[in-house]
Specification:
Number of strands: 2
Structural class: mainly alpha
Shape: globular
Strand content: under 5%
Radius of gyration: 23 Å
Helix content: over 70%
Order of helices and strands: HHHHHHHHEEHHHHHHHHHHHH
Number of helices: 20
């Protein structure tokens, strides 16, 4: 029996390029003149080419065009009516950053994947590329003892790197899925190495996101009864997370790290808060001030400020990122209590319904993966830049599109039968 040959298509290339974007962005942003815009043009052009090459593609994927038309109208109206927020067209983490980072293009990328298996295969390929890239990146702090990078036009030395941390989170999440689904236990070795790397160089939020993903797998990953060995693996992972978050575990990891001459931002800041040496404000990059400010703004204007309308106020208190560091607060501030709450409810509805209706384990695994990395937006990230929300929307549409098309065709058939019957009468 011969293995079935898998045909490689432009859809596959698009998906691999999208999920390998961090490497390409490093190359184009830093080494190619106007490289960011060239990469953007190439990505959008590839999306357009794939749509056009699909049979009747402009009709089948009309939702892609409608979505970006709505986004253009929404942002265009907001910036036209309020000159004060126009600075976010070009300021860091504004509209320009959203376009160059490419997160909002997750929707067409995933929509253009024909099956969950195709999406899963391409993400695996992209994660191999990203794993090699992140391994190369970590050589820098190992050699020098610090990361050297530019932020807001200022060159900084740091013992941690948040983007690296959340990038590794996605890699270890995919490897965990492969280890469980494909019964490749050896993959838990790089998963463990990646988690240790996050502890040493990364963000506390990355570990929380991974723990949330493990909990989601326990609850929804399998419809049938879990095998004992899988339960043991998951419980060990959760015990590891609980140990690290304990005073004893954090102190032990910090002691081991210090013996090798490595400092861990994650462990140090966590211990500082647990032991009362420093305040939440000093160890949270100002999140408590941001959240207090945004909650006050929501109470002051419950109808909302419109897209990016709250960001100048956050910027003025010295937080250059200018967003809430919380997805739900961003939505409530931008779209008001009513529509923001509807957006939150809609997101939760899509997630729950997709878990309930999906009979394919790989589809549920993909949803768990996207939710895991999207949890970053509960304490960091911005939905206009992060790919998570757009990916969840695309997964939802892909799952139900066939049913919607069948219902539409059935409706047209009923209308034709009715008209024919009337003509006969």
């Amino acid at each position: 029996m011969t293995a079935k040959k898998v045909k490689f298509t432009l859809n596959d290339l698009l998906c691999i390029i999208f999920f390998a974007l961090p490497l390409l962005q490093d190359i184009f942003f830093n080494h190619v003149p106007h490289g960011g815009y060239l990469l953007l043009i190439g990505l959008v052009g590839l999306i357009g080419l794939v749509i056009v090459k699909e049979p009747n593609g402009l009709v089948r994927y009309a939702d892609v065009l409608v979505l970006y038309a709505l986004i253009a109208v929404l942002l265009g109206t907001a910036f036209w009516l309020d000159p004060a927020r126009r600075i976010w067209l070009t300021r860091d983490f504004g509209v320009k950053t959203a376009l160059l980072m490419g997160g909002i293009f997750a929707y067409p990328t995933i929509r253009l994947q024909k099956t969950p298996d195709q999406l899963y295969r391409n993400i695996k390929i992209a994660m191999v590329i990203r794993a090699a890239y992140y391994l190369y990146m970590v050589m820098e702090p190992i050699r020098q003892g610090y990361w050297l990078y530019e932020q807001f036009g200022v060159t900084k030395r740091s013992e941690s790197h948040m983007s690296w941390s959340y990038g590794v989170l996605m890699v270890v999440s995919v490897l965990s899925i492969m280890a469980i689904r494909e019964k490749k236990k050896i993959l838990f070795v790089p998963v463990g190495i990646g988690l240790i790397g996050i502890l040493l160089y990364g963000s506390r939020g990355s570990i929380v996101c991974y723990a949330i993903g493990a909990a989601l797998y326990i609850l929804f990953g399998e419809r049938k009864q879990l095998e004992l060995k899988k339960v043991v693996i998951i419980l060990l992972a959760l015990i590891f997370v609980a140990f690290v978050f304990s005073d004893l575990g954090a102190s032990a990891v910090e002691m081991l790290a210090q013996r090798t001459g490595i400092k861990s931002r994650f462990i140090t800041t966590y211990l500082n808060m647990m032991q009362g040496d420093k305040s939440m404000d000093s160890e949270s990059n100002g999140r408590d001030r941001i959240w207090a400010l945004v909650l006050g703004m929501i109470r002051e204007k419950p109808l909302g400020y419109g897209p990016m309308g709250h960001r100048n106020a956050i910027y003025r208190i010295g937080i250059k990122w200018g967003y809430s560091h919380n997805l739900f607060l961003d939505w409530l501030a931008e779209y008001g209590v009513l529509f923001g709450s509807l957006a939150i409810f809609g997101l939760l509805f899509m997630i729950v319904r997709l878990f309930r209706k999906s009979n394919e384990p790989i589809e549920r695994m993909l949803l768990i993966l996207i939710i895991t990395v999207s949890c970053e937006m509960l304490f960091s990230g911005y939905y206009w830049i992060h790919f998570g929300i757009w990916s969840i929307l695309a997964l939802y549409v892909n799952h139900f599109k066939d049913r919607w098309q069948q219902q539409r065709q059935l409706g047209l058939k009923d209308i034709v039968q009715f008209l024919v019957a009337e003509e006969i009468v």
